[in-house]
Amino acid sequence: MTRAAAISRAEQQFDSGAFRRTLARRIAIPTESQNPERAPVLAQYLQDEMQPAFEAMGFECRTLTQPSAKAPFLFAQRLENPDRPTVFGYGHGDVIRGLEQEWKDGLSPWALSEHENLWYGRGIADNKGQHSVNMQAMANVLAERGSLGFNAKYLIEMGEETGSVGLRELCDANREAFSADLLIASDGPRLRADRPTVFLGSRGSMNFDLSIDARAGGHHSGNWGGLISNPGIQLAHAIASIVSPTGQIRIPAWVPTELPAAVRRALADCEVDGGADAPSVEPWWGEPGLSPAERVFGWCSFEVLAFKTGNPETPVNAIPPRAWARCQLRFVVGIDPQQILPELRRHLDRHGLTMVQIAATREEMFHATRIDPEDPWVQWAVASIAQTTGKKPAVLPNLGGSLPNDIFTDVLGLRTVWVPHSYPGCSQHAPNEHLPPAVLREGLCMMTGLYWDLGDGETPRPAA
Fold first, then answer.
1. For residue 323, what is the DSSP state?
2. Distance, first Cα to last Cα, the chain
3. How many whole angstroms from its chain centre is CA 342?
4. How far apart are CA 97 and CA 109, in angstroms?
5. Angle separating helix axes 3-15 and 18-27, nearest 10 degrees
6. What is the DSSP letter of 407?
7. Is 151 helix (H, G, I), strand (E, B) or coil?
8. CB atoms < 10 A from the CB of 124, how many?
9. Do 250 and 244 contact (CB within 8 A), yes or no?
10. Do 149 and 113 touch, CB atoms closer than 8 A?
11. Can you tell me whether residue 307 is helix, strand or coil?
């Protein structure tokens, strides 16, 4: 009954093919939360896969609903000793649409398959593979020790890919039931495929539309060119006023006043590398004076996601009557999300661009979060992972992308330690989603070690 024996059990469980069989069964369930026809399938995933797996580990399970959510949640808990730490786990079983017709020949989103030493399947990276690793790691500790040695609570939702609608209200209504010392969960990518990573929050994200509606219809460019305004040109100038030709944001309220020293220290040895199929980092793009890691994990970025004016498919010789762009700001702690659009309005007005209309989209806004990289729980987790893997984990103050992490920090008051089991080149949300099996195997071993250490009595003191 030792830590090494538990990790050896994890290695054997993976190498025997048992983990792959479990994951293949879960990937075969097409849990597309954006597809209304899949609503019964979302509930099936909880009933047929998650609940039996938790109950086999001695967890008590409850299906929870929330009026605004389109799918149920599963809450599982195993309470062993009130004097031991309580860890809250989280995962989501829903996936992005399968996009079956766009996958490589011979591959299907709903079948776990191996091709060129990679495992393919929708959800293998986001998020079925990741929460399956964590659940199996707990099972490994139970099998070796006979108990976890800590109290565990776990929430599986089925609507993360549609904005986690209802999750905030559910957590607010169940604050006492969900109370814990910290969250340990897995989502998103590692910094690199070969480097274990811990991240402590996420950048916020706000999508919004810019548009100009100048007149009822188009007008011949020969007869009216030079006489009436072109909304496409005007909107291009509006966008150019927001960001420089090299990607530097020009609205002061949209960027932090400084990069905190603890964030700089954490990112000092972090190198951004998405793997062989990833684009090359362009050092001249973005905020000058920052390293690539600081730009993506410590700073804000503005993107134009789509731009339309006229008829792009079949252009005609007419001045278009309108122009539209979908834009996005990814922002870090220190940016007031309530002032993002008002500051944009003031900025455009100062530049004489009063004709540009601004509208928030219906998409959920994610808030920026991060805990202190030097928090004792963070240092404990990093030490545990380093002991298991023999590697120094990367510590990212926050994920470059966005998660509903503020629900856990602000509503439940939890420290949040995320340990991802994916990598930047995984084709998450795209056709051909995949992972190197080595990432999953290492993840299974290091989570087994992490959960073992949670139960050995040498953790930081529980939060007051």
1. E
2. 32
3. 27
4. 9
5. 60
6. I
7. strand
8. 30
9. yes
10. no
11. strand
Give the pLDDT confidence score for residue 365 in this predicted structure: 84
The reported pLDDT for the residue numbered 462 is: 57
Under a CB-based contact definition with an 8 Å cutoff, are residues 178 and 171 in contact?
Answer: yes
Q: Residue 378: how many CB atoms within 10 A of its CB?
A: 22
> What are the CA-CA distances from residue 95 to residues 90, 128, 389, 419 (Å)?
15, 8, 29, 19
Structure tokens at 305: 């996601």
Residue pair 204/401 in contact by the 8 Å Cβ criterion: no
- Decide: helix, strand or coil at residue 386: helix
Take residue 284 and report the two structure tokens written for it. 């001249």
Helix locations, 252-370, DSSP H: 261-267, 292-297, 340-350
Domains in the chain: ranges and CATH = 3-202+367-454 (3.40.630.10), 204-256+300-360 (3.30.70.360)
Q: Supply 174's token pair.
A: 């169940």
Helix (H) or strand (E) holding 304: strand 301-309
For residue 383, give every residue at least 6 positions away whose Cβ sits within 8 Å of its Cβ, in sequence order, or none. none
> How many CB atoms are closer than 10 A to CB 232?
20
Q: What is the CA radius of gyration of the chain?
A: 24
Averaged pLDDT for residues 288-292: 96
List pLDDT tens digits, range 61-116: 999 999 999 999 999 999 999 999 999 999 999 999 999 999 999 999 999 999 99
List Cα–Cα distances, 203 to 46, 298, 307, 416, in angstroms: 29, 9, 24, 14
Q: What DSSP assignment string belongs to 105-145?
A: TT--TTS-EEETTEEE-TTTTTTHHHHHHHHHHHHHHHHHH
Give the model's pLDDT for residue 277: 73
- Counting Cα atoms < 13 Å in the Cβ hemisphere of 90 gives 27
Q: Which of 80, 88, 155, 85 is nearest to 463 (CA)?
A: 85
